[in-house]
Specification:
By secondary structure, the chain is mostly beta strands. The protein has two helices and 31 strands. Pfam families: Big_9.
């Protein structure tokens, strides 16, 4: 447990290893150049770039307490400007690694009245950068990280170091805590509350390459401004309660920019009864900033699960009808308008499959109509020789017949003669042969 020793105004803690002058470096790649080697205008130019018209730049504080920095990659704000309550460069708490949990310097300077009102107490060793600027849009945004040697031992004490970012008199360095805009200060973001915004960096842990014992995640702010007119910015950090234990804020270079609110898209979706529905929330950001999605009202007759933008809606068992929920997006600084996702849960419609019942059909018995057969009768040519009649033994024939008289045969009643007509020829069936039967006289 660290012991806190009050420092008189202008005194320096024995833990302050030295006073940095000009460029300084600790961990490889890290540099800090304080205001002993550059001007406040250089800080503002690093912050806003060359395209924004700036005037009336004023720095209030110790020249060793503010400067520009680079090489702080793992903090999420790699390069930019730093304001501290002690020393920005070598010997201060900003440069890594963290080898001491009590780095402190007293500059013996007053605090800031605006910060006094925020933390409800007297602040000291304030470091203040102010300037006027003319924006080309109606909104600006910044990204920053706040850290301190006050963590974790002096959380929930009077040593509530604080940072503020005033635009036209209003502090926009705040975050939403249970629906309330809350200032960025030791007692508001730490390992006990709002922990999702806090990162711990114990001595010799190597967690983050900085000497600060604790720090916030990358925070964003957005502020409305008067487009095309002069606006005033005031960045300020200070100790609260005494002069001991350094705190710092690192503001990302070039993060000063115009910002428009993101959008959130409403949707109409459907699912079947008792069937979960996968939902992808939709939103856009004109500046390409990453978006976070927040469900504002839960659906009735069902539940949502998952993390935005990918959610799953599970309807209540047996529920049929329409339900909805609302959500918004945030680009790190601004919220979108509220969007609504409407879900229709429909009963399952069962379409019957047609059933075909075979029908027995009698096969008709075909009616066979015989095709008439034509029987040709071959009538042989008239033989050049007289036909020879060969009767049965009971028959006699006399040839040749008399001209024009036919062929005379004799025989018993029922006699069936056979007629040979020339060599190898027989009378064909069906041929007509005129026969004359003569009966013998008994006398």
């Amino acid at each position: 447990m660290r012991l806190r020793t009050a420092l008189a105004a202008g005194a320096t803690s024995v833990l302050l290893l030295g006073v940095g002058v000009g460029a300084a470096a600790a961990s490889p790649g890290q540099t800090v150049t304080d205001l002993s080697a550059q001007t406040p205008e250089d800080l503002v130019a690093t912050l806003v770039g060359d395209e924004t018209a700036v005037s009336n730049v004023v720095y209030t504080g110790d020249a060793l307490a503010a400067g520009t920095y680079s090489g702080f990659t793992d903090l999420g704000v790699e390069s930019g400007i730093a304001l501290t309550t002690g020393t920005a460069g070598e010997g201060g708490a900003l440069l890594g690694p963290n080898s001491d949990d009590s780095t402190s310097a007293s500059r013996g300077l007053p605090g800031d009245a605006d910060l006094d009102a925020i933390v409800e107490g007297e602040t000291r060793d304030a470091s203040v950068l102010e300037f006027d600027f003319v924006p080309t849009e109606d909104n600006i945004a910044f990204s920053y990280v706040f850290g301190s040697e006050e963590y974790q031992e002096f959380v929930d004490t009077d040593y509530n170091d604080v940072f503020a970012f005033f635009v036209n008199g209003t502090n926009y360095a705040t975050f939403d805590a249970d629906g309330t805009n809350t200032a960025v200060a030791i007692n508001n973001i730490n390992h006990l509350r709002n922990t999702e915004l806090y990162r711990d960096n114990p001595v010799d842990s190597g967690s983050f390459d900085t000497g600060l014992d604790g720090l916030t995640t990358v925070l964003g702010l957005s502020a409305p401004v008067q487009q095309g007119e002069s606006n005033h910015i005031k960045l300020v950090i200070a100790d609260r309660g005494d002069y001991a234990y350094d705190s710092a804020v690192l503001i990302q270079a070039g993060s000063f920019r115009s910002n428009t609110p993101p959008t959130a898209a409403s949707q109409s979706l459907s699912t079947d009864i008792d069937t979960p529905l996968n939902i992808t929330l939709a939103g856009t950001d004109a500046e390409g900033d990453p978006l976070t999605y927040s469900v504002l009202t839960q659906p009735e007759n069902g539940t949502l699960s998952g993390d935005g933008p990918n959610l799953t809606f599970t309807p209540a068992e047996g529920f049929e009808g329409e339900t909805s929920f609302t959500f918004s997006t945030n680009d790190g600084a601004l919220d979108s308008e509220v969007a609504t996702v409407t879900i229709t849960v429909s009963p399952v419609v069962v379409t019957p499959t047609p059933s075909v019942t075979p029908t027995e059909t009698a096969t008709p018995t075909p009616t066979i109509t015989p095709t008439p057969t034509t029987t040709a009768t071959v009538v042989p040519p008239v033989p050049t020789t007289s036909p020879t009649w060969t009767p049965t033994p009971t028959a006699t024939a006399t040839t040749p017949p008399a001209p024009g008289g036919g062929l005379a045969t004799t025989g018993a009643d029922g006699f069936a003669p056979t007629l040979a007509i020339g060599a190898g020829l027989l009378l064909a069936a069906g041929a007509t042969l005129l026969l004359t039967r003569r009966m013998r006289n008994s006398d």
